[in-house]
């Protein structure tokens, strides 16, 4: 097969922070040990199939702008799928990410019948398996695309028509089998249309029960086939629906508890979905870690002025460092990783732009890892926080949480000891300066 990305002949290499070569990494040095672990193993980078290979660069006001020969509708769909896969694996391996991710419909076209769609997917999964064996690439996650086709306009699991629920279950089963076959580390569900456009025509409670039942079937089936990867829900507050049921990490946790799934399903946090939900990225990570449901990250950012999912490549070390800090404090990734659910801008027309986007993103995340590790290793921040909570770390503090006392006991204690707490500084500015100092120095 002929190369598609002819500007890059060998894998992108680490050249150090002083490198001016745009086709080199300045910070991502995969074998470098950070807190005793290789950078590659901390970051577990993955690139996505859909935005990079399956999206023509269209938007709601305009057609595709990109040079993606396999998207030509005149091509035989299965021939196009093979060509696309060759280019995708060429890109993934030249970039040097260890993982990739896909939707079923990215890698194989929908057929005239469900049976034909399944057989198209099986053919392409065989082909992907051979590419994976040849290149050593691994699968971070697979997912069924349950939102593009008009049948899913009113949702998949939360559709008012039970036949759509049936269809979505069948499609998901096939995709979970495929993910299992490729050794996927996770399986993701993003409920883009699991929500509503108007409450006026929606039975919200019934739809939540549908989603709860659907996810219980997914978990049951995962165990039936012995899939050891994690099942991940990807929270997002809205878009394309007005309201999405898995709004953010906290909402997802409440939902999982209600349907008995809190030990079975985790979250795939997308940086810009956090922003759209009115949260910082580090908030979403900390929330998930505190509930024991942190799974993986889609590391794409938004734009401060645009209120939609722009899926831009991360390029702010400050924004990312604080999220990586929470991830490291939570013990780091297990099955998850940083997945670039990223889109080029519509005017980024050169084939090599895909490299520039990902190289910058990987360097940003690598540098953020160095900052987060420096924060942890110096222990200064944790010491300030520990001093702030010192009272709770005493025996009396623990007793307050143990259920030993009721309101009347505490009333009595405050009276008896004449307790009169003095406020202490939260030291926010001092801490913010500490963060900036760490960012400046981390190398
Ligand atoms: C859309 C989501 C989507 C999922 C995969 O906003 O981010 O790309 O990650 O279905
Ligand atoms: Ni995503
Ligand atoms: Ni998104």
Count of domains: 2
Order of helices and strands: EEEEHEHHEHHEHEEHEEHEHHEHEHHHHH
Helix and strand content put the structural class at alpha/beta
- CA radius of gyration is 24 Å
CATH topology of the largest domain: TIM Barrel
Return the CATH architecture of the largest domain: Alpha-Beta Barrel
The tally of beta strands, per DSSP, is 14
Unreliable stretches:
none
Largest sheet: 8 strands, parallel, barrel
- Going across the major beta sheet, what is the strand order? 5-6-7-8-10-12-13-14
User: How much helix, percentage-wise, in residues?
Assistant: 40-55%
What is the beta-strand fraction?
5-15%
Shape: globular
- In DSSP terms (H or I, runs of 4 or more residues), the helix count works out at 16
What do these coordinates show?
- The structure is a single chain.
- Helices cover 46% and strands 11% of the residues.
- It is an alpha/beta fold and 443 residues long.
- It has two domains: 344 residues, TIM Barrel, CATH 3.20.20.150; 44 residues, no CATH class.
- The strands form four sheets. The protein has an eight-stranded parallel barrel with strand order 5-6-7-8-10-12-13-14, surrounded by five helices. It has a two-stranded parallel ribbon with strand order 1-2.
- Helix 5 runs parallel beside helix 6 and helix 6 runs parallel beside helix 7.
- The longest helix is centred in the last third of the chain and has 26 residues.
- The protein is globular, with a radius of gyration of 24 Å.
- The protein starts with 12 loop residues before the first strand and ends with a helix.
- The mean pLDDT is 97.
- The site of one nickel (II) ion (NI) has 4 residues, from loops.
- One nickel (II) ion binds next to loops.
């Amino acid at each position: 097969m002929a190369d598609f990305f002819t500007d890059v002949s060998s894998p992108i290499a680490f050249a150090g922070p002083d490198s001016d070569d745009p086709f080199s990494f300045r910070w991502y040095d995969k074998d470098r040990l950070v807190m005793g672990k290789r950078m590659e193993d901390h970051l577990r980078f993955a690139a996505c199939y859909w935005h990079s290979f399956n999206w023509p660069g269209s938007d709601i006001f305009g057609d595709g702008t990109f040079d993606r020969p396999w998207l030509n509708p005149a091509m035989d769909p299965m021939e196009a799928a093979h060509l696309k896969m060759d280019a995708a694996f060429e890109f993934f391996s030249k970039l040097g990410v260890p993982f990739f991710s896909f939707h079923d419909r990215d890698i194989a076209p929908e057929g005239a019948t469900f049976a034909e769609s399944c057989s198209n997917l099986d053919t392409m999964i065989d082909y992907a398996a051979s590419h994976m064996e040849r290149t050593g690439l691994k699968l971070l996650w697979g997912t069924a695309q349950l939102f593009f086709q008009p049948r899913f306009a009113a949702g998949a699991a939360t559709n008012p028509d039970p036949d759509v629920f049936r269809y979505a279950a069948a499609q998901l089963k096939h995709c979970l089998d495929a993910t299992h076959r490729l050794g996927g580390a996770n399986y993701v569900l993003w409920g883009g249309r699991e929500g509503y456009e108007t409450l006026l025509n929606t039975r919200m409670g019934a739809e939540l029960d549908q989603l709860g039942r659907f996810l219980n079937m997914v978990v049951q089936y995962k165990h039936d086939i012995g899939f050891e990867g994690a099942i991940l829900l990807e929270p997002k507050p809205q878009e394309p629906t007005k309201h999405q049921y898995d709004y953010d990490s906290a909402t997802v946790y409440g939902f999982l508890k209600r349907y008995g799934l809190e030990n079975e399903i985790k979250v795939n946090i997308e940086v810009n979905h956090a922003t759209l939900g009115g949260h910082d990225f580090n908030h979403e990570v900390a929330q998930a870690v505190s509930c024991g449901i942190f799974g993986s990250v889609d590391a794409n950012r938004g734009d401060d002025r645009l209120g939609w999912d722009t899926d831009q490549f991360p390029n702010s070390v400050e924004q990312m460092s604080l999220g990586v800090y929470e991830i490291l404090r939570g013990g780091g990734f297990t099955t998850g990783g940083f997945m670039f659910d990223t889109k080029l801008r519509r005017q980024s027309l050169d084939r090599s732009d895909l490299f520039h986007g990902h190289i910058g993103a990987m360097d940003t995340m690598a540098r953020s890892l160095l900052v987060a590790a420096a924060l942890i290793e110096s222990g200064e921040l944790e010491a300030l926080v520990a001093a702030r909570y010192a009272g709770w770390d005493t025996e009396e503090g623990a007793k307050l949480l143990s259920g030993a006392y009721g309101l009347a006991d505490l009333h009595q204690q405050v009276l008896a000891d004449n307790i009169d707490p003095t406020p202490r500084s939260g030291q926010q500015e001092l801490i913010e300066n500490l963060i900036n100092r760490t960012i400046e120095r981390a190398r």
